[in-house]
Amino acid sequence: MRDLYYKRNPHVSSSNMSVPSETLMKKYLExxxxxxxxxxxxxxxxxxxxWDGHRVRxxxxxxxxxxxxxxxxxxxxxLWSAESCKYVDEYCAPDMNPLVDxxxxxxxxxxxxxxxxxxxxxDGKKGIFQSRQGIFTRCLCMSYVDxxxxxxxxxxxxxxxxxxxxxxxxxxxxxxxxxxxLTITDDQLIVGGSSFGTxxxxxxxxxxxxxxxKSSFAPTGMKTLSFNMNSLLLFAGSTSGYAHxxxxxxxxPLWETRISPNVIYSVHHLSNDLSTLAVGGLxxxxxxxxxxxxxxxxxxxxDPGKSATISSEARKRSVEKTRVRSLGGDIRVDSIPRYLxxxxxxxxxxxxxxxxxxxxxxxxLWRFRExx
Length: 372
Hints:
Elements: H1 2-8, H2 22-43, E1 45-52, E2 60-64, E3 67-71, E4 76-81, E5 87-92, E6 99-104, E7 108-113, E8 117-121, E9 128-130, E10 139-145, E11 148-153, E12 157-162, E13 167-173, E14 179-184, E15 189-194, E16 198-203, E17 209-214, E18 222-228, E19 233-238, E20 242-247, E21 252-258, E22 264-268, E23 276-281, E24 286-290, E25 296-302, E26 308-312, E27 318-326, E28 346-350, E29 353-357, E30 362-369
Antiparallel strand pairs: 1-27, 1-30, 2-3, 3-4, 4-5, 6-7, 7-8, 8-9, 10-11, 11-12, 12-13, 14-15, 15-16, 16-17, 18-19, 19-20, 20-21, 22-23, 23-24, 24-25, 25-27, 26-27, 28-29, 29-30
């Protein structure tokens, strides 16, 4: 780390300066990594690795620490390597209800059906906990920060479930309509979007509603949320094709940009990235936006050229590599054949990569590389 620091900072003389502190070097290398991440998105080369991951269509994906988790469409969650795209493991919901939402970390997987919470261990023993049937009503979405899971329901309420006591600790009236998307901030705030287009902010501990955010463009419904704790910016995608950004310090809109004629299903960014936001929706175009202005910086679609098989597994699962086409700002979306742009129902951003699901059997991993 010290050698790289001096190599990248030739104006700093090691003879005139003591060894930089660990904090200083860590911050410098983090900034360097984010610059390379942005550069790969905007000016690098791109390819897609695609494979059939489910017998039934998959509509949700999550990516963390080199692992990808996909599912929803049946009762099976599957874990993959983000490096090799190889199958790692799978987790099955125990009841008759299909999965609705899920997320994971290095220790566990938390999954939600329409009426029950399931928690799987990732230590190889595959222990599973199921909440009591029927304690939640028509669940639509979830988010968790240890030790609590917040579950959004059709009646506008959120149930706060403690994973250690295994009980519902409180119920918070968050919205007057369906709670369609949720996120929890590091400051213990619940942020929930509704089908009516409002976003409510409530205190996780007290249940007190602190603010309501609303789009300037109506009617619209909120479909997805992503919060950047470093910049205190909240991003959302809506049914009318708008991407939204609110500044949490002022609780006012920073920008609202219509980037698509159709619904936006997913927005996401790296936790330490302050510059780029990945957006996907019904039109099937993968877009990279500026977090500060909402400007569309790049747009991508799979190229119709030939694909090549790059690996194959014993389970008859092959991974194909496909070229990617970068779109100009003036291109009409309807001029691109529909089969090249299946709806992006969910996306998740990793370092120089994005995984997408399309409510189809296949999974796509978009790899971005800097130009040398």
